[in-house]
Specification:
2 copies of one chain form a homodimer. Chain A is built from 8 helices and 7 strands. Chain A is an alpha/beta fold.
Amino acid sequence: MIINDAVAQLRKGSMVLIYDGDEREGEADIIFHAKFVTPDKIEKLRKEAGGLICLAIEPMIAKRMGLVFYTDILASSDAEIKEMECTKTAYKDKPAFSIPVNYKGVYTGITDNDRALTIKKMSELAENEGDLKKELIADFYSPGHVFLLIGRGIENRKGHTELALELAKKAGLKGVMVLCEMLGKGKALSKENAQKYAEENGFVFLEGSEFYD
Amino acid sequence: MIINDAVAQLRKGSMVLIYDGDEREGEADIIFHAKFVTPDKIEKLRKEAGGLICLAIEPMIAKRMGLVFYTDILASSDAEIKEMECTKTAYKDKPAFSIPVNYKGVYTGITDNDRALTIKKMSELAENEGDLKKELIADFYSPGHVFLLIGRGIENRKGHTELALELAKKAGLKGVMVLCEMLGKGKALSKENAQKYAEENGFVFLEGSEFYD
């Protein structure tokens, strides 16, 4: 089964492509497990995928870190524009965004080296047994250049965030996954071109539907 | 004078490179005025610059829109992690980030077409005379995929945000400028390579110091 191939690739540190479905975003994301991050992988994402480089975190770990959705932060703030909170996107889901972070050891935060370092340190934090919230506050700041996403579980939302985290779970890996949208000319990269890219790079191409069949 | 060349190019809708200085970020950003945005320009930024695609807004317009700094939103929220607020970066400045937005007419928000549309609509909003805050809330949502930055004026901060907005002012254009960091292998693109890129593309290369001489 293709999902088993994806799990095997994920454990080896390889990238995997996940296409959510024609009826949702209609978009393929490159994903890989955060512990395998390197500056070269970040370079590949920005040059060949082109979307935002995000870090999806499973609900239990996010909770231990004290992470909440960005929308909850905006809505509970004293900003006059808090009504701008997005409750539903055009593809009918709530956004997965939490806060954007940088590890305190970075310089600007945006370079390949800096983003890889932030992701590496977040991955290490997720492996910890201690007080994750205390360590998050001690070692990271916000706003930064790595966009944290919180999963809602595939029973609640079928986005790339949830699919990537579900794959990590099947692989027996901690729920911290790097994600980046694949863009084409003007629009999301077409499913056909994403499949072609996966083939050329030796990456598994997974569809959201394969998680439910 | 090179700054006059940059002003002339800006008015024509061309991109300009601004290098802040060796003692600050040591980074070149591609900038252009928001009203000249096109999906092709967004594609060029993501493929050839590689950083975050941001929209810098001058303080007076930001104020009329009701925009505040992201750090103020975080600090005034009820999030347990609000202490993560960044008060000073490694290059000694406060961050310029306000909120990330999408125009309500987008689909995912991340594609070249969607980011260009969000920027175009923000630029049109800045030209308006009415209640900008009301229109911002009516037509845009947050979180989105275009990162708004608020200028603090070059007398207070000498970042790309302030330099780009100062250039817009000299050009007699509204203070809404698109910015994207130029990345190289692992690190920020070197000053020499940024100069070479500017030359190859026929873009003016401006240094922060030229604003004060």
